[in-house]
Amino acid sequence: MASLNSIVLNVLLYFVFLEAIIITSIIASLNSQEYDRIKNLPGQPKSPPISQFSGYITVNEDHGRALFYWFFEAQSESTRKPLLLWLNGGPGCSSIGYGAATEIGPLRVSKNGVGLEYNKHSWYKEANLLFVESPVGVGFSYTNTSSDLSQLNDEFVAEDAYNFLVNWLQRFPQFKNHDFFIAGESYAGHYLPQLAELVYDRNKLPTKYPNVNLKGFIVSMQHFYFKLDHINS
Ligand SMILES: *[C@@H]1O[C@H](CO)[C@@H](O)[C@H](O)[C@H]1NC(C)=O
Known about the structure:
By secondary structure, this protein is an alpha/beta fold. It has helices at about 1-35, 95-105, 155-170, 190-205, 225-230; strands spanning about 35-40, 50-60, 65-70, 85, 105-110, 115-120, 130, 140-145, 180-185, 215-220. The chain is globular, with a radius of gyration of 21 Å. Its EC number is 3.4.16.-.
């Protein structure tokens, strides 16, 4: 009897311990995302309130590469709306300067750059919007290894974007199970399918990689292949 009791006790303790670890790690990530919270930007309209975050996600520790992001929670019911990663193209175009601040984000830079104005057509009405400046060298994204800048092919870019995504979800674990979409335009016609393929392939190796709940990708004004893209223009 005593031994059965002690087994039960051990099992109980084990679960309490496990729970404690899980709760601690959730609290830790909530804390680290709170560091990234933007309370207010200079020139931001007083209303509506906008839940936004920004910061760096390390994508390669050895070389010291980090990508800069700006994230907006969906205007309403953000806990059940999809997560959408937006990439501008270029190569070399800033997703912050274009996608977020002049196209689909809720805050656009106003004429002559004197402030911000609310964009009532923003996609944040339908999705949680994650803008990332990719690859390193674009906007605020950087590398501490200058030679990286001469190695930037599509494969390199997809690998960093994948690591960005996985590490960002680590910091914002409450979005891990949301439907996830990748969207973008122009040269992102190369970035998106390449990133989607990497996610798709790695989702098949669950012991090696975390699952990313990818549902699809959306490309506009795409550059897939120069001759075909310009056939009607
Ligand atoms: C890059 O170098 C700076 C200065 O040493 C350091 O503070 C920063 O953490 C490094 N970035 C990464 C991603 O390792």
